[in-house]
Structures are given as structure tokens and as C-alpha cells.
Design a protein that fits this description.
There is one protein chain. This protein has helices at residues 17-31, 37-40, 48-59, 65-83, 95-104, 118-124, 148-157, 171-179, 208-215, and strands at residues 4-7, 109-112, 133-135, 164-168, 183-187, 198-200. Helix 1 packs across helix 4 (65-83). A six-stranded parallel β-sheet has the order 3-2-1-4-5-6. It is globular and about 50 Å long. It has nine helices and six strands, in the order βαααααβαβαβαββα. It is an alpha/beta fold and 216 residues long. The protein binds 6-O-phosphono-alpha-D-glucopyranose (G6P) and magnesium ion. The site of magnesium ion (MG) has 9 residues, from loops. GO terms for molecular function: beta-phosphoglucomutase activity. InterPro entries: B-phosphoglucomutase_hydrolase (IPR010976), Beta-PGM (IPR010972), Beta-PGM-like (IPR051600), HAD-like_sf (IPR036412), HAD-SF_hydro_IA (IPR006439), HAD_sf (IPR023214), PGP-like_dom2 (IPR023198). Belongs to the HAD-like hydrolase superfamily. CbbY/CbbZ/Gph/YieH family.
Length: 216
């Protein structure tokens, strides 16, 4: 098969984007500033380290390295407590069906996520076995919008980048895919994801029918 699908995790496969947001928001509040959902768009798809940098910039706070490490640790602990009881009911609508369809068509499936928590999350959703390869925040050194994560996934699947479809809810991820001529499929609001080759408000609008059409 010449095509492949690369899925982002948070906000595409599972509704964990809200938990990342909640954990960052609490951290911001503890540091004494507000952090809105609109501002959170800048953190989507972005690594933990980079997210903290952006957050501190928003709050106009500067901290030493030790304190930053500690805050990232605390943020992650909080995030992990939110996702501790994750199960299949948190899989976003239509995603499982889409994975089943791709498997049935023998189309390789990759994960391309910035998260270092990707594997345990996929396992708790019982989706781990769908993936032919998993590239996550433990495997790459350059955060989205750098395309490293997607290029590595394509390479591991032995599929040319231009034949890869990338499903993403973040601007950084759409930019990463576009920069190496992958076909970007955005999940979210149009104004948040300019440049996406295709865009859907929700995962349930990314139907098997649509995927069949773009594969032909
Ligand atoms: C994803 C999410 C981000 C998150 C990043 C790192 O890209 O969209 O919100 O900050 O992964 O996740 P981690 O689980 O390693 O903190
Ligand atoms: Mg995401």
C-alpha cells in the first residue's frame, strides 16, 4: 500500500486535550495569572518543555531551571491523575471505526504525538495493537511544528511523506505536516487551523466515506 495514516493522540484519538489544558491552567493560577482556552491553542501539539516556556511567557514570569523542572513534574503528575481512569469510552467519536476500516484495507497506521505518555494512554484505550508504529515525545528532539515526528513515522512505515495523511487538532501539527507535503486533516475550528488541507469540526465528521474518497 502506498498510503499511510498518521494520527496525533491528544485531541484526535482521545479527549485528553482538556486534561492537559486543566493541568496547565492550574499551574498558571498558582503562579498568579489566568490562562484561557484561546491561549491554550498555542500549547496544543507542543512538547512539555516548550509548553511551559510559552505559558511562562504569557504570564510574564521567569524562573530558574530547577523550578521549571519541578513545575513540569507537578503538571505531569496532575495530568496523570486525570488520565488514571481512562478507558475506551474516552475514545473520540468515529476514531475506532476509522482504525478498523484502515486495518481492513491494510493501510499502515502510525501514531505521531509529542506526548511522553502516549503508550500507556493507548493501552488504557485498548488501541495499542492498531498501530504499526508509534513515534512519540520520547523519540524525537524537535517539537512540532518541526516535522521530525511525522517524518520518522513515515520512514518507519516505509511510506513516502506525500502519501501520508496526518490527522491533527493543533496548529503546530498542521504546520509540521504541511511543511513536508503530507496531507493535513485538521480537527477543530477553521480559524484555529489555517492551512489545513481538510478540516472537520469533530472526529465524527471525519467519516470512512471521506477517507475512502481521499484514498482514491
Ligand atoms: C501533546 C499535547 C500537548 C502536550 C504534549 C506533551 O502534543 O497536545 O498538550 O503538552 O503532547 O505531552 P506530555 O504528555 O509528554 O506532557
Ligand atoms: Mg493534539
Amino acid at each position: 500500500n502506498k498510503n499511510a495514516f498518521i494520527f496525533d493522540l491528544d485531541g484526535v484519538i482521545v479527549d485528553t486535550a482538556k486534561f492537559h489544558y486543566l493541568a496547565w491552567k492550574q499551574l498558571a493560577n498558582e503562579l498568579g495569572f489566568e490562562f484561557t482556552e484561546d491561549q491554550n491553542e498555542q500549547l496544543k501539539g507542543v512538547s512539555r518543555v516548550k509548553s511551559l516556556e510559552i505559558l511562562l511567557k504569557i504570564g510574564n514570569v521567569s524562573l530558574d531551571q530547577d523550578r521549571k523542572e519541578r513545575l513540569m513534574f507537578e503538571k505531569n503528575e496532575r495530568y496523570l491523575s486525570y488520565v488514571a481512569n481512562l478507558d475506551e469510552s474516552e475514545i473520540l467519536p468515529g476514531i475506532k471505526n476509522l482504525l478498523l476500516f484502515l486495518k481492513d484495507k491494510n493501510i499502515p497506521i502510525a501514531l505521531g504525538s509529542a506526548s511522553k505518555n502516549a503508550i500507556p494512554i493507548l493501552k488504557s484505550l485498548a488501541l495499542f495493537d492498531f498501530f504499526d508504529t508509534i513515534v512519540d515525545g520520547n523519540d524525537v528532539s524537535n517539537a512540532k511544528p518541526d516535522p521530525e515526528v511525522f517524518l520518522l513515522a513515515a520512514k518507519q512505515l516505509n511510506i513516502e511523506p506525500k502519501y501520508c495523511f496526518v490527522v491533527e487538532d493543533s496548529l503546530a501539527g498542521i504546520q509540521a505536516a504541511n511543511s513536508v507535503h503530507m496531507v493535513s486533516i485538521g480537527i477543530g475550528e477553521k480559524e484555529n487551523l489555517p492551512g489545513a488541507n481538510h478540516i472537520f469540526n469533530s472526529t465524527q465528521d471525519l467519516t470512512v466515506d471521506f477517507v475512502e474518497t481521499i484514498l482514491n
